[in-house]
Amino acid sequence: MADEDPVDQKKYLEEACKPKCVKPLLAYQECVKRIQGDESGHKHCTGQYFDYWSCVDKCVAPKLFTELK
Asked: Which UniProt keywords are present, listed alphabetically (predicted)?
């Protein structure tokens, strides 16, 4: 077992947590649709993007730290 490369559990935990963060994901997707035609570059969905990943991270963190050695 010592010869095996460690596996990053965060990716697996993120996939498991994504379904719990549907509301922020939908808000982000709606924002992206809203600004698709913006040629000026002034409109963005950064806030919605970070809200989504914040939700995922809050779900992942307690599970991830119990698996770290």
From this structure: Disulfide bond, Electron transport, Membrane, Mitochondrion, Mitochondrion inner membrane, Respiratory chain, Transport
For the chain, report the end-to-end CA distance as a whole number of angstroms.
14
CA-based R_g, the chain, Å: 17
CA–CA separation, 9 and 4 (whole Å): 14
**Tell me, what amino acid is at 69?**
K
Q: Are 52 and 24 in contact (CB under 8 A)?
A: yes
**Residue of 47, 51, 56 lying closest to 16 (CA atoms):** 56
State the Cα–Cα distance between residues 27 and 48, nearest whole angstrom. 6
What is the domain count for the chain? Answer: 1
How do residues 34-46 score in pLDDT, each as one tens digit?
999 888 878 899 9
Report if residue 51 sits inside a domain: yes
Nearest to 11 by CA among 64, 65, 68: 64
